[in-house]
Amino acid sequence: MRTIGNIIWFLLGGVVMGLLWWMFGLIAFISIIGIPWGKACFVLGRFSFFPFGYEAVSRSEIFREQDIGTGPLGFIGNVIWFFVAGIWLSLGHLISAVACFVTIIGIPFSLQHLKLAVISLAPIGKTVVSKQEMSWAKYSR
């Protein structure tokens, strides 16, 4: 079921939002100082292409320790990101969510867009894991 959902998602709009994530990532890499943001864009862009069966979570939740992206510098990075690109990506996901929600069959896709809209506001310090890895990390504490 996850594979079918991902294929339908990709064909009906996931490719557009994933490419937008990657476009912002390329712009960030070109600026040199934006490389941390670019890395997050590529990770979350891939997630935006195929979101079913995966979750975006804080790296500190998975690895149980703070790193540069999950600490104070990550917070500052997310504030900068919010104003530079986060608002625009979030708006794109919100518009896509409304378009999907109009049809009954598009409601699961709309919910995925809403999750991605929230993530796009503050992506620094996040990573994407499969739902199996996430359940394993929760039970291994």
UniProtKB/TrEMBL annotation:
Q: Does the keyword Ribosomal protein apply?
A: no
Q: What is its main location?
A: membrane
Question: How does the protein associate with the membrane?
Answer: Multi-pass membrane protein
Xref: InterPro entries: Inner_membrane_protein, UCP028777, YccF
**Where is the protein situated, by its record's location annotation?**
Cell inner membrane
Q: Which residues cross the membrane?
A: 7-37, 79-107
This chain belongs to which protein, by name?
Inner membrane protein YccF
Annotated organism of origin? Vibrio marisflavi CECT 7928
Gene encoding this chain? yccF
